[in-house]
Structure formats: C-alpha cells, structure tokens
Amino acid sequence: MLRQDSSNRKKCQNFFYTASKYVGYTVCFASTYPNIQYSVAFPFINPADVGFEWVKTQYDNAPGYLALSVLTGLSTLTISGSFTVQYYQIAGKKIKEEFSLLIQTGTNKKRFAASVLMALIAAITGGSVSGAPYSGATKILPLLLGFAFTGATSFVGLTNLIIEFSDKDVAFQKALLSYLKQLKPTYRNQVNELLRNKVLNTETLAEFLKNFFDLQLRIEAENPNDSIFIPQTITDQRKQLAGKIFDVLVAGTISTIASLVYIQAGYAGTNIITNSALNNWNQAGQIAIGTFTGFSPIMFIFLGMKCLRELIIDLYPDIKNSHKKMAYAFGLFLLCTLNSTWFYSLGRMTVVDDNIFSLSASAGFGAALPIAGLLTSLILGITGLAPRVFPPEINVETPQIDDAAKMLASKHHQPVVDALKTHSFFSRAKNAKPTVQLEEIKTQSDHDIEMQNQALAPVI
C-alpha cells in the first residue's frame, strides 16, 4: 500500500512537473508574439495593422510579400522563442542563487539591491517595447510579459556584470588562462608532456597548471632572462589598442543610433506609469528620463556588439576548413538576418510616430535608425548563437594545452583557483599580473556567453 501511494505521488509529481514545463514553454513563446508582429510588418507595414484581415488581403493581392512575412515571422519565432526559454531558465537559476545567498549570508546584499533596482527600471523599457503595437486592453498582456522578461534577464546581466568587475577569483582564473594563451611555441611539446596519460577534469587541470608554473620557475632559475611566455612587444600593444578602438567605434556608432529606440521606449513606459505627467516636461528632460530608464538595455547592446571581431577571429580558422561548418555559418547568418527585421520595424515605427527627438523617417538619424536596428539585432544574434552552433571541442582523453585552455574557459573552476592562488609563481610582485591584456583572451566561456545573452535579450 505504501509503495502504491509512493508510486502515485511520484506520478503526480512527474505530471505536474511536465505540465508546468510546457506551460512555461507556452508563456515563453507567447512572449515573442510582439517581436513576430514587428518582424511580419517588415519593411513598411504598421505592426498594429497586422492581423487576420491583413493576412487575407496579402494572400489575395501580394502572396510573395506574404511569403516573406511568413519567413521573417518564423525566424523570429525560432530565435526569440528558443532564447526566451533559455533566458528564463538562466534567470530562474540565478535569482534563486542570489536570493539564497542573500538569506544565508547577506554578503551580496549591495549587489542584489543594485541589480533588482536597475532591473525594475530596465523592465519599464521592455514592457513599453512589447506593448507598443497594441492599444487598450490588448496592450496589458504583452506589456506585462515584456516587463517580466526584461526585468528577469536584466537582473542576471547586471549581477554578472558586477561579479565580472568585482570578483577577484574570476579575474584570477582569467589571468591563468591568459598565461596559457601566451606560451612560446618552442615550449609547446614540453608542456603537452605534462598532460600525457591524463584524463582532463577539474582535479587534473589544477595539477597540470601547478606543473605548468613550476616549469616556468625552473626555466627562470636556470636562466633569469628566459621564459616560457611570449613577451608582449610595443607592436602587439598597438595592435590590441587598434582592435579595441575599432570595436568601440563600430559598436558605439551602431548602438548609439539604435539606442534611440530604447530611450523613446523608456520615456513612453515611464510616461504610462506617471499617468502622462511627462508630457509637460521639456525635450531635454524627456530624453534624460528615457536614457535613464533605457540605460541597462543600451549598455548590454554595446557590450554584446563589441565582441563581434574577436568572435570572428576565434571561429574563422575552424569554419574555413569545413564545408559543413561553412554551411552552418551561412544558415546562421541568414536566420539572424531574417530575425533582425523585427528591430528594423521597431526603429521605423519609432520615427514614423511622434517621438521625443523630433526625428523624421526621411532624413538624418531618423532614416538611419531602422538600418541601425537591423544591424544591431543581426550582430547580437550572431554573437549570441555562434558560440553554441560552434562550441569548443575539448579532448579530455588525450588532452593538450589547447584542451586545458578550453576547459579552463568553459566555466568558473573555483577548486582550480583555490589550488593555484598559493603557488609561488603568483606570490612575487613582478608576476602578479599577466603580460598580455586579459581582454585579448579569445576562448569563449559559459559566463561570457551568458553575458552576451543578456545583451541579446532586449533585441532578439
């Protein structure tokens, strides 16, 4: 009898788990409907006009245009829907972790408070974007879904960003990775010997890194002028600086124009909350409140866009030697291009309607805004999806130094960090910092991908 009760209870638990999972999937895909409506409206239709009557009219008069609309809509459903599911899963896990840490130790209370506050502010912008094509009672549901989605993903992104700049263990692991990346080719075989007959896991990774830095100390003891690391030249520093300037200029120019969408949405959302009180403000004040409200999405857009060049440099050598990967890359580009049409429509709608910038759709920033929106969504789609379409291949059975570097970059390894902190190599002031810039690390970690996803969240 007890066994039967236990079995029935387990069946009920499984049923409710499965049911809740599919309800969650349904909500996630339903959240993408405003994006789909924007995408279907590409390039000249008002999203508010898209409906059954519009579809019937296009079917009778312009079936080719309707076919394009179906393609763009399905692309947005595929990308936005799948990412929304993933974002909510990541957000749920992160919120649970941060809340548990807050209750148990309280060590993250400042970070938690700042992330919650900024996420709520960012959510106003997200709700405004999702609710823009609708009016009256039909506006409520998409507005609430957009508010919840942007708030949850912004909380994760802001929390990760704070950790990125404040967690010394994260910085130390990046330093470890940077040393592996600057190994002289002449020492490569000798270092690979340290991994012979090893199965790569967290324990053996820590052991390998200890032996790796022991080797450097031995080489240095034999000849103080020698090292297993490549010295950074002035030319290298100039190349790195030029690359960073290029990234900032390209990302900054495109995201600055695209940010007008979120400034307008931030103002519109705040105006709804204040019962249209902002209508009486002057233009400068309206732009200021819109910028404040839309700051988080704008920041994540910029951070996500500026990693495109490094991603291409990282993936190109593998893709160019494989016809299969080249086909995948082309398919990814095409899918992201079709999906990005939704931001084009959002940008066009921003300047066609009354806006706080007094922009016209026919000239200047107004004409450039839809194109900048399309490029923004395209670039962020690629930087968000490419690392998952082309994940790093790690050989754990017969590993070499590249495999060790990929594993070190795959996620945060606290046991490895703890084991290496006390190594004598890092106790010397002259070696306290790596000799290459940490920003030049090309291997994409799960944390880096998660950060990119937060940038993608407002625009996918």
Number of helices: 19
Strand content range: under 5%
> Major sheet: size, sense and barrel closure?
none
Average of the residue pLDDT scores: 85
Q: Which regions are unreliable across 5 or more consecutive residues at pLDDT < 50? A: 429-456
Shape: globular
The secondary-structure class comes to mainly alpha
What's the Cα radius of gyration?
25 Å
Kindly state the number of beta strands: 0
Topology pattern, helix = H, strand = E: HHHHHHHHHHHHHHHHHHH
Helix content range: over 70%
Give the CA-CA distance, first to last residue.
Answer: 52 Å
What is the element layout, followed by pairings?
Blueprint: H1 2-31, H2 33-40, H3 52-61, H4 63-104, H5 109-131, H6 140-166, H7 168-181, H8 188-193, H9 202-222, H10 234-273, H11 283-293, H12 295-305, H13 308-320, H14 323-339, H15 341-352, H16 364-389, H17 401-410, H18 414-421, H19 446-456
Helix pairs in contact: 1-4, 2-4, 2-15, 3-4, 4-6, 4-14, 5-6, 5-10, 6-19, 7-17, 9-18, 10-11, 10-12, 10-16, 12-19, 14-16, 15-16, 16-19
